[in-house]
Amino acid sequence: MSNNELDEMIKALSHPIRRDILNWLKQPDLYFADQEHPLSFGVCAGKIDQKTGLSQSTVSNHLAILQRAGFISSKKVGQWNFFSRNEAAVQAFLEQMQQQL
């Protein structure tokens, strides 16, 4: 992992809403059990919007930042976008932080 990638990941975690989203995506069955589509697709962006109480555009921006940092991935199914945690990236980040601190 390059220093630029690590910096991008640290910046992505600097906002509490983005940390909340990562936490919710860790256990989607706990936080998004009412989703109509299978959680195996990921969590629908609209459900994340509802959970945060923020506007769709604001949540989209937060999701884009998390995605650019590699913490989440997206999957388009029909007209919906679904998001999931990238556990490998989360683990790599944690290991890198462990080494540097």
Summarize the structure.
The chain is an alpha+beta fold. Helices cover 60% and strands 14% of the residues. It is built from six helices and three strands.
Average predicted confidence as pLDDT: 93
**Strand composition percent:** 5-15%
CATH architecture, by name, is Orthogonal Bundle
- Count, helices: 6
Helix-strand category: alpha+beta
Distance between the termini: 15 Å
Oligomeric state of shown chains: single chain
For the CA atoms, what is the radius of gyration? 14 Å
CATH superfamily: Winged helix-like DNA-binding domain superfamily/Winged helix DNA-binding domain
Low-confidence stretches: none
CATH class descriptor:
Mainly Alpha
General form:
globular
Number of strands: 3
User: Might you state the CATH topology name?
Assistant: Arc Repressor Mutant, subunit A
Percentage of helical residues? 55-70%
Order of helices and strands: HHHEHHEEH
Number of domains: 1
Largest sheet: 3 strands, antiparallel
Report strand order across the widest sheet: 1-3-2
Q: Which tags fit this structure?
A:
single chain; 101 residues; Arc Repressor Mutant, subunit A; 3 strands; 14% strand
